[in-house]
Amino acid sequence: MKRYELIIIGAGPAGLSAAIEAASNGMQVMVFDENERPGGQLFKQIHKFFGSKEHKAKERGFRIGEKLLKEAEGLGVEVQLKAAVMGIFDDKEISVMLDGRVEHYRANNIVIATGASEKMLPFPGWTLPGVIGAGAAQTMMNLHGLKPGSRVLMVGSGNVGLVVGYQLLQAGCKLEAVIDAAPRVGGYGVHAAKLARTGVPFYMSHTIKEAHGDSCVKGAAILAVDSSWQPIPGSEKYLEVDTICMAVGLSPMSQLARTAHCEMENNPLKGGLVSICNKYGETSTPGVYAVGDVAGIEEASSAMIQGRIAGAAISFDKGYINEAEFATRYEEYQNSLMQLREGMFGHKDKEAADMEHTEEGYILSQSLLSKGYMDAEEIEEYPGVYPVEQRGKGVFPVIECTQNIPCNPCQDACKRGCIKVSGKITNLPSVDASVECTACGMCVVSCPGQAIFLVDETLAPGYASVAIPYEFYPLPEPGSKGLALDRSGTSLGEAEVLKVKSSKAMDETAVLTMKVPVEWSMQARFFQVY
Amino acid sequence: MLKEGSELMRIDHHPILKTFEKGKLVKFLYDGEVMEGYEGEPIAVALRANGVMIHRYTSKHNDPRGVFCAIGRCTDCVMVVDGEPNIRTCITPLQEDMKIETQHGISNNKEDESI
Ligand SMILES: Cc1cc2nc3c(=O)[nH]c(=O)nc-3n(C[C@H](O)[C@H](O)[C@H](O)COP(=O)(O)OP(=O)(O)OC[C@H]3O[C@@H](n4cnc5c(N)ncnc54)[C@H](O)[C@@H]3O)c2cc1C
Ligand code: SF4
Ligand code: SF4
Ligand code: FES
User: Which terminus of chain B is more exposed, N or C, with fewer CB under 10 A?
Assistant: First the structure.
């Protein structure tokens, strides 16, 4: 039986980070993954991530995956793909299905980093071809270049539903609606706003009644529910769709922890059944660790840090780093992790958030929470928007980021210092009207929430320019005409494209500047090609 | 012969990913019909690009099933491939001249059959 110092199960962000940390300290590491490519969820994530620089914010998920892999390979980490781990037995022996045969390995330490699986919500017709998981939609469109459907209904308004919804639009599908049984959009407001301004309707307090079709999905009936989740008679709506995409949550894939006799708990905050871990990620079975989504549904950014912590703890335990070194690293990683867990969506504050005000005391937009977009008047109240009297001097940034989310690339992007995220990274970004904006557009493209716009109300008498982030194909030509849409996706009228800027540094996010009547300067937020 | 919806499902230009690396274009047989797909892509992807939604029928109720998870976990997409049943088409690469048939019944997934 082959023996390793450290075996890691799962080559997602958590597993790879644990491997990198341990291997960089000199440990011999073996990673098994059942998939045929490494990277876990990251390779399906084509959007820019939140967080701060140290969390690799504003990088697209798949590029983070590529970097992790390269780093792991550079350190001599072995990654065995198409290797499904079936069980963990006494003495840290594991059985692995390889090429149809069961192989056994033994390790001094094991890290379980198997991620999560998608939850399902049964409803009449849910087994029809055309009902798919959000992960399946991502796999088809982002890995294999195939639209999962033409007209799609997204069930679930958490970040997964919102992000996959946006990716569906980028793939060229039509997103007919996003529905959620909860009264409020579950994911970040900025993710919702990206969809809403293209015209995607949000039906909150709605559930799916049934899928229509004999041999495959031909439509979906949805219906409103009241505050006690009871259907409201007569509220039924029919949507003509060929695909129903389910994004109703993830559950930790913790079966392996059970085979290792780890003490388990059912923790709704962590997404279900998880092993009980100490602060280093070690389970009740000594030498067996659990990190990433398998230890509690979170984000890739936090999964990477958890992996680092476990890797460091194991290295220390085996004498590869000394106590002082371990203490320094642990503190650094832990601080970084805590930053991510702040805010109204974070693990730490989820329960405490009142959903009425931000931590700083700004009023939370209820329209954003219930419809996916903010009303035009509301936006004036936030610190990311210049006071009206300061707007006559030329271009100014408008930051429509109004919830406490762990993110600050906008601040780093502005070399001139127009934008600040002071204190905690979950604080709202604010603009400093005394610093002149050069209209470079870097804040616009660095914002993973696509929440920053550049407005110039002095373009020409009666006209303003509005610059927006744009990530669709094809890029409109300067001089071409189309419709200016407001935050709800409603057409305001005709707009003309003045400029389309894209460069390598902008990483496929273009800045599209359109000319609109000056009255629309604080309303026009999307450009629709005729 | 292409079915309705066919090649339109392929993404030719992706705003972020640009183009997708594909193997060579090959022919395969779906229930006796000649179709085209790219070598090495999952069978399920080639079928979907040709407008095929139904992969199998359950034995108990004869209910149609198609791709659901696309990562080899749910077994909804199993078909008879080159005579062998229960092949998960979402993770099995397409090869030239493969014979792919709709599967009736016989699945490993007990849970499915009770639905
Ligand atoms: C649509 C969507 C958008 C997201 N957006 C963001 C975002 O913007 N920012 C962010 O930080 N996070 C985001 N996330 C979350 C992030 O992708 C996950 O939190 C993260 O991938 C978890 O990492 P992990 O390593 O724990 O698990 P995974 O990435 O799921 O990796 C687990 C790996 O384990 C392997 N595995 C499982 N079981 C076995 C077994 N028995 N044997 C061998 N191998 C096994 C799997 O094949 C997989 O490769 C998003 C997720 C989704 C679905
Ligand atoms: S456009 Fe450039 S100068 Fe203006 S706020 Fe954004 S990053 Fe700063
Ligand atoms: S405005 Fe700043 S904090 Fe808000 S999503 Fe964009 S980059 Fe992040
Ligand atoms: S679609 Fe689930 S196994 Fe293929």
Answer: N
